[in-house]
Amino acid sequence: MNMEAFILGCGGMMPLPYRHLTSVLLRRDGDLFLFDGGEGTQVSLRRLNLKWKKINAIFVSHTHADHVTGLPGILMLSSQVDRTEPLYIFGPPKIAEYIETSRKVLDMYINYPIVVKEITEPGVVYEGDGFYIRSFPLEHTKTCVGYTLEELDRPGEFNPEEAEKLKIPKGPLWGKLQRGESVVNEDGIEIKPEQVVGKNRSGRKFSFVTDTMYLPSIAKEVKGSDLLICEGMFADGCEDQAKEKKHMTSRQAATIARDANVLRMGLIHYSPRYNDKELNVLLEQAQQVYPEARLTKDRMRIEIPYVE
């Protein structure tokens, strides 16, 4: 089952000609999940030629303009295709008012159900086949949340050679063992699943954190992520400004990645004061703490494979 993240925009505060505002699309096989929708989201989606009109759900960190101004266009363009499945939108208080006001003022024609759910406490907000998406609190100048998508454990790997040695004929009995059921072999001996199936294998974890001051508690929430997308808005020397605006430096983001023992971390939501060349300063400072840190860029694709 494939999983991949597409960086639709990596900028913060204001769009630049070469940098749209923060937005990430996560694709898990046929499911599509949008995390934030800053200005320019539609442009990147169309340039990537993704089937974005079938987005299952949108997860909004907070209702500052640089994270939601791309959403009205997404809602309107989604009406250009036949759709019966509802579009779910999750976010902190005010997201329902923003969506409803946008629909009313812009006189949107919407031919599919939109279900908006405001997050008032941390926990699971969305569940699917073999995974769930959970929210957790951040600290910004207004209510803000982070998200993780976590897959359930996968069954262990089936060993056909061992099954044959134990005289279990290939066919339905193999299927039962893989489903966790005991069977009887050709000699009438009971064979248990653990004799031919390995231990459960872990699923994958994707985490999205932006617009927050540094909190040691974030590391616990994103612990063990296969991919953490995390804001690293400022360079060293801007700690006071980051604290005042309740943002993070790239070094603080890297500290979270290190403490959470994540496999990979992509920095996002850069201050417009840094041009693309100057972003290398953010990267170098992050890698001093967490060597696997990387810069994200608009329309970058990041594969999230299973770790066996």
From TrEMBL:
Q: Which reaction does it catalyse?
A: Endonucleolytic cleavage of RNA, removing extra 3' nucleotides from tRNA precursor, generating 3' termini of tRNAs. A 3'-hydroxy group is left at the tRNA terminus and a 5'-phosphoryl group is left at the trailer molecule
Name recorded for this polypeptide:
Ribonuclease Z
Q: Which cofactor does it need?
A: Zn(2+)
Reported function: Zinc phosphodiesterase, which displays some tRNA 3'-processing endonuclease activity. Probably involved in tRNA maturation, by removing a 3'-trailer from precursor tRNA.
- Occurrences of domain Metallo-beta-lactamase (ranges): 20-199
Q: How does it assemble?
A: Homodimer.
Pfam families (UniProt xref): Anti-Pycsar_Apyc1 (PF23023), Lactamase_B_2 (PF12706)
**CDD domains for this protein:** RNaseZ_ZiPD-like_MBL-fold
Task: State the organism of origin.
Answer: Treponema succinifaciens (strain ATCC 33096 / DSM 2489 / 6091)
Give the gene symbol. Answer: rnz
Arranged from A to Z, the UniProt key words for this protein are:
Endonuclease, Hydrolase, Metal-binding, Nuclease, tRNA processing, Zinc
- As recorded in UniProt, its EC number(s) are 3.1.26.11
Q: Which InterPro entries match?
A: Metallo-B-lactamas, RibonucZ/Hydroxyglut_hydro, RNase_Z/BN
Gene Ontology molecular function terms on file: 3'-tRNA processing endoribonuclease activity; zinc ion binding
Q: What domain of life?
A: Bacteria
The record's comment on protein family reads: Belongs to the RNase Z family.
Q: Which sites are catalytic? A: 66
**What enzyme category does the UniProt record give?**
hydrolase
Question: Which positions in this protein are listed as binding Zn(2+) 1?
Answer: 62, 64, 140, 211
Extent of the signal sequence: none
Q: Which positions are annotated as binding Zn(2+) 2?
A: 66-67, 211, 269
**What does the cofactor field's note say?**
Binds 2 Zn(2+) ions.
